[in-house]
Design a protein that fits this description.
The complex is a heterodimer. By secondary structure, chain A is α/β, with parallel strands linked by helices. Chain A is built from 16 helices and eleven strands. Helix content of chain B is 34%, strand content 4%. Classes of the chains: A alpha/beta, B mainly alpha.
Chain lengths: 490, 97
C-alpha cells in the first residue's frame, strides 16, 4: 500500500505506531504535488520548506507523546481565503496577490494544534464567487477525474487536491455550496457545518451570514475527525456557538435503524440528470435496507432559494469587499489622479469580472429606492425558506437529495452564462440561507466516469445524525476510491 | 421591475461600488444586471405579508466581551502589506487640496 492511499485517520494511526513518519507523509505529498500539480493546478502556494520543518517538529512531539490525536502528523491543505501568518493568502485574486496576514485563521490554528501539517493554499474562485474555480486570477483548477471538466467551486482546489492525492484532507468554505458541490464533482466527502460551529475568524468574508468553514476528506471518518477539531467556540467571532456535542467521531455508527429520511420531490424534478437521480435514489435504498424509514415529501419554496441567495450574498459581499481600497494592503493601481481615482482604478484592476458583477448587484439591491423591493424582500423569503425546513424537520431526521443537478461540467461552459451557473446551486444554497448542516458524499459515477454526489441535510446542530447516516452508507457501499487511485496502478 | 437598469443606473452603481468601467464593461454590466434582476423578480411570487425579514439564522443579539488586547505588536507584519509606506506609516494620495 502506498502511503498516499491512507485516509487521514489511518495515516495518523500508522504514525502513532511508528510504521511511518509525519516527515515521510509530508515528503510523499510534496512529491505528488511536484509530479501532478502542473496538470491540475490545485495549489496557489505550496510552502515545501515550511511544511517540512513543521513535519519534523510534529514528529518530535508525537515521539514524545505530546501529540496523540487522530490527526497528528497529517498533511492538509487550506483554501486560499483563510489567513495564514507567514504564508500568503490571495483569495485567488489579483487584489491580494502578495498579501501575507499577520495572524492565522482559527480553524487552521486548531488543525495545527491537533498536529496537522499545512502543505499549502488551494485555488478557488476569486473571493469564493463562482461554482467552477474558473474565476481564479491564477487560472482554473482541472478536475483530476477528467481534466476537460471543472472541479466545481468555489473550494475546487481543495476538493481536487484531496482526490488527486496532493494532501490527505483539506479545509474549504461554503457560502452557497462551495464545499459540498466541489466535493460532489471530485468524488470526495465535504461538509458544511451548522452556521456558527466553526469560527470564521481569519476567513476572508464573502457573505458573512452564510459563510462557514468545513472539511473536504477522503471518507466520512476523516470528515468527523476534522470537524471535531475545528468546531470550537471562539470569542473572536461573535457568531461562534458554544457546542457541547463536538465529539463527532462518536457518531460514526453503522446504524440508521428507525432514522426518518425525507426525500423532497422538488429536488428530483426538472433539470436533474437521470444518472444523478438514479444514483441518489439507489443510495436512499441502501439506507432503507439498513432500517431507515425513507419517504417522499414536498419541501416547497425551492425555486426561490437562488434569487434570495444571490440578492443576500451580493449585498453582503458589496459591503465586505469595500475594504479593498489600495491603502492598507493588497493591490494599488500604478497611475492615478487623486484619492478617489486611486480607489476606482485599484478596484477595477484588482477585481475580476465575476466579483465586479456581484458587488455591483449588491450595491444596487441595497441602494435607496430598491432596498425594500429586493434586499428586504429576499430576507423575508429567507424566513419562509427557514420555516419550510423547520416544518420538514418536525417529521424527518434527515433530508436526502442530490448535491448538484449534474456531474462536473466542461471547462468554459459555465462562465458564458452566469445565471445558468447560478442555477446549478439549487440544492445546496437553501442550506446556507437556513444555516443548516449539509454533507456531500460520493454515491456513484456517471457514464463518463465522473463522480456523483449525495447530499444529506440536517436540522441545526444535527451533524451527528448526518455523519451516522453518511458513515452507514459508506460502510454498506464501501469507500469510493479517489481519482489518483483509479487512474494509476500501483 | 428589471427594466430599470439604464445607462444612468449602471453609472450610479459604478460610483457606489467605486468601480471605473470601460464602455464595454458598462454595457455588459447593464445586461447582466437586468438579466439577474429579472430572475430575482421571482421573489415577488411568495406572499411575504407580515413575515419578519431574517438577516441572521439565530436570534442572537449583541455579543459583548471585555475590550482586552490579546495580540502582540504586529505593526511590522501589518505595514509590510501596504502598497505605499513612508516612515513606518501608510502612505496615501493627497486627500485635501
Amino acid at each position: 500500500m502506498h502511503i498516499l492511499d491512507n485516509t487521514a485517520v489511518e495515516l495518523a494511526g500508522k504514525i502513532k505506531l511508528g510504521e511511518v513518519t509525519a516527515v515521510a507523509a509530508t515528503e510523499a505529498v510534496l512529491a505528488r504535488i511536484e509530479a501532478v500539480d502542473k496538470q491540475y493546478n490545485c495549489y496557489v502556494t505550496v510552502d515545501a520548506e515550511k511544511a517540512h520543518g513543521r513535519a519534523e517538529q510534529v514528529q518530535k512531539k508525537i515521539d514524545r507523546g505530546e501529540l496523540t490525536g487522530p490527526l497528528a502528523g497529517v498533511p492538509f491543505a487550506v483554501k486560499d481565503n483563510m489567513c495564514t501568518a507567514g504564508t500568503r493568502t490571495t483569495c485567488s485574486s489579483r487584489m491580494l496577490n502578495h498579501f501575507i496576514s499577520a495572524y492565522t485563521c482559527e480553524a487552521v490554528k486548531n488543525l495545527e494544534a491537533a498536529g496537522g501539517i499545512m502543505i499549502g493554499k488551494t485555488n478557488m474562485d476569486e473571493f469564493a464567487m463562482g461554482s467552477t474555480t474558473e474565476t481564479s486570477y491564477f487560472g482554473a483548477t482541472y478536475n483530476p477525474w477528467d481534466t476537460r471538466h471543472v472541479p466545481g467551486g468555489s473550494s475546487g482546489g481543495s476538493a481536487a487536491a484531496v482526490t488527486a492525492g496532493e494532501c490527505f484532507a483539506a479545509l474549504g468554505s461554503d457560502t452557497g455550496g462551495s464545499i459540498r458541490q466541489p466535493a460532489a464533482f471530485c468524488g470526495v466527502v465535504g461538509m458544511k457545518p451548522t452556521y456558527g460551529t466553526v469560527s470564521r475568524y481569519g476567513l476572508i468574508a464573502y457573505g458573512s451570514s452564510l459563510d462557514q468553514i468545513g472539511p473536504l476528506t477522503k471518507d466520512v471518518r476523516d470528515c468527523a475527525a476534522i470537524l471535531q477539531v475545528i468546531a470550537t467556540h471562539d470569542k473572536k467571532d461573535t457568531t461562534s456557538m458554544k457546542r457541547e456535542d463536538s465529539d463527532f467521531m462518536e457518531a460514526l455508527k453503522h446504524d440508521v435503524k428507525g432514522m426518518k429520511i425525507g426525500i423532497p420531490r422538488d429536488y428530483f424534478g426538472e433539470g436533474l440528470e437521470s444518472e444523478v437521480k438514479e444514483a441518489c435514489l439507489k443510495a436512499a435504498g441502501v439506507l432503507a435496507a439498513h432500517g431507515a424509514q425513507v419517504e417522499e415529501f414536498d419541501l416547497g419554496l425551492v425555486e426561490y432559494a437562488i434569487p434570495a441567495y444571490y440578492t443576500i450574498a451580493a449585498a453582503e459581499a458589496s459591503s465586505n469587499l469595500e475594504r479593498f481600497d489600495g491603502i492598507k494592503y493588497g493591490y494599488r493601481t500604478a497611475d492615478y489622479d487623486g484619492l478617489h481615482n486611486m480607489y476606482k482604478k485599484t478596484r477595477s484592476e484588482g477585481f475580476g469580472p465575476e466579483v465586479k458583477r456581484r458587488i455591483m448587484l449588491g450595491f444596487f439591491v441595497l441602494s435607496s429606492g430598491y432596498y425594500d423591493a429586493y434586499y428586504l424582500k429576499a430576507l423575508k423569503v429567507r424566513s419562509l425558506i427557514k420555516k419550510a425546513f423547520d416544518e420538514a424537520f418536525l417529521h424527518y431526521d434527515i433530508i436526502l437529495g442530490p448535491t448538484a443537478p449534474t456531474t462536473a461540467p466542461k471547462l468554459g461552459e459555465s462562465l458564458i452564462d452566469p445565471l445558468k451557473m447560478y442555477l446549478g446551486d439549487i440544492y445546496t444554497i437553501a442550506v446556507n440561507l437556513a444555516g443548516l448542516p449539509g454533507i456531500s458524499l460520493p454515491c456513484g459515477r456517471d457514464r463518463g466516469g465522473l463522480p456523483i454526489g449525495l447530499q444529506l441535510i440536517g436540522d441545526c446542530f444535527s451533524e451527528k445524525k448526518l455523519l451516522r447516516a453518511a458513515f452507514t452508507y459508506e460502510q454498506a457501499h464501501g469507500v469510493f476510491p479517489p481519482a489518483y487511485a483509479m487512474s494509476e496502478p500501483e | 421591475m428589471a427594466d430599470i437598469i439604464d445607462d444612468q443606473t449602471v453609472e450610479y452603481v459604478g460610483i457606489l461600488a467605486k468601480l471605473e468601467l470601460s464602455p464595454e464593461e458598462k454595457l455588459r454590466a447593464g445586461e447582466d444586471m437586468s438579466k439577474m434582476l429579472a430572475y430575482i423578480d421571482k421573489l415577488n411570487e411568495p406572499d411575504t405579508e407580515g413575515v419578519e425579514p431574517m438577516s441572521h439564522i439565530f436570534p442572537v443579539s449583541n455579543v459583548f466581551r471585555e475590550d482586552v488586547v490579546t495580540n502582540g505588536n504586529e505593526r511590522a507584519e501589518i505595514i509590510k502589506n501596504a502598497p505605499g509606506v513612508k516612515d513606518g506609516m501608510f502612505q496615501v494620495p493627497r486627500t485635501i487640496e
